[in-house]
Write a structure and sequence with these properties.
It contains 9 helices and 8 strands. By secondary structure, the chain is α/β, with parallel strands linked by helices.
C-alpha cells in the first residue's frame, strides 16, 4: 500500500473515531441530564393516570428558619408532601427532620451534601446516600425512602448502585423556579408556571428553603387552585404505588 493510501486510511479512521467519541459524549450528556431515563434501576418522573392526583416535592433543607412557614401552609390545607432532604443541612438544623415526620410528611434522600453524582465511585455514592438514610431513620421516619439526585445529574455508577440497593430514583415533570440569577421571581409567576404544566400524575419540584418566601407563597396558591380544579394531593410513594 502506498504511503498516500495509508495516510488517507489513517485520516478516515481518525475522523470516524472522532465522530464516535462525539456521539458518545452527546449521548452521555443527554443521559446524565435526563429526567426520564437512566442506565439501571427504576426511575419515575410522573405516573400515567386519569385520576387527578399530584405529588408536591420539596428539595434541599430542612432549614430551621423556614420549617414553620412550610409546615403551616401544608397543615392549614391538609396536604401531605414529600421532602427530599440533605443530610448535611439536617445536621446543621437539628430537630427539623423530626418535625417533618411528626407532621405526617414523607422523607426522601437528596444526598448528604448535594454532590452531583456523575464521576463517582460506588463508595462515593454510598458516602452520599447512607448517612442521609441514617438521619432520616433516626428522625423516626419508617416509610420507603426514594432517592433524588442533586440537579438531576446521574450517569452510570449512581444508577447501578441504586439499582443494586433496590432504590427508586424520583425525578419530576413540573418545575417552575428560575435560578438564572435575574430579578427575584414573584410568587404569581411560580404559581402560574406550575399550574400551566400540571396534569394527572404529576410530580412537582419546588425549593422553599433558605428564605424563598415567593416559593412558599406560590405553594399555597398552587394548592388552592389545584384543589379548585379537583386535584388531590398524595406523597410520592402513594403516587408511584
Amino acid at each position: 500500500m502506498s504511503p498516500t493510501r495509508r495516510t488517507r486510511r489513517a485520516l478516515i479512521a481518525l475522523a470516524a473515531s472522532a465522530v464516535v467519541l462525539s456521539l458518545l459524549a452527546v449521548g452521555g450528556y443527554a443521559l446524565m441530564n435526563s429526567r426520564t431515563a437512566q442506565v439501571a434501576g427504576r426511575l419515575v418522573d410522573r405516573v400515567e393516570t386519569a385520576e387527578k392526583v399530584v405529588a408536591l416535592t420539596f428539595d434541599d433543607g430542612p432549614t430551621a428558619a423556614d420549617t414553620d412557614a412550610i409546615l403551616w401552609l401544608l397543615a392549614q390545607r391538609g396536604v401531605p408532601a414529600t421532602f427530599y432532604v440533605n443530610g448535611g443541612v439536617a445536621a446543621a438544623n437539628p430537630g427539623q427532620l423530626e418535625r417533618l415526620v411528626a407532621a405526617g410528611h414523607e422523607l426522601g434522600n437528596h444526598t448528604q451534601d448535594h454532590k452531583r453524582l456523575i464521576f463517582v465511585t460506588p463508595d462515593g455514592v454510598a458516602a452520599q446516600v447512607e448517612p442521609t438514610d441514617a438521619a432520616i431513620r433516626a428522625a423516626g421516619y419508617d416509610g420507603p425512602i426514594t432517592f433524588r439526585p442533586p440537579n438531576a445529574k446521574k450517569l452510570v455508577v449512581a444508577p447501578v448502585w441504586l439499582a443494586q440497593h433496590d432504590r427508586t430514583t424520583v425525578m419530576w415533570d413540573v418545575e417552575a423556579e428560575d435560578f438564572g440569577g435575574g430579578p427575584p421571581q414573584p410568587a404569581s409567576d411560580i404559581a402560574e408556571r406550575v399550574l400551566a404544566q400540571v396534569r394527572p400524575g404529576s410530580i412537582v419540584l419546588l425549593h422553599p428553603w433558605n428564605g424563598r418566601a415567593a416559593t412558599q407563597e406560590a405553594t399555597g396558591e398552587v394548592i388552592d387552585e389545584l384543589r379548585r380544579r379537583g386535584y388531590r394531593f398524595v406523597t410520592v410513594s402513594e403516587l408511584i404505588g
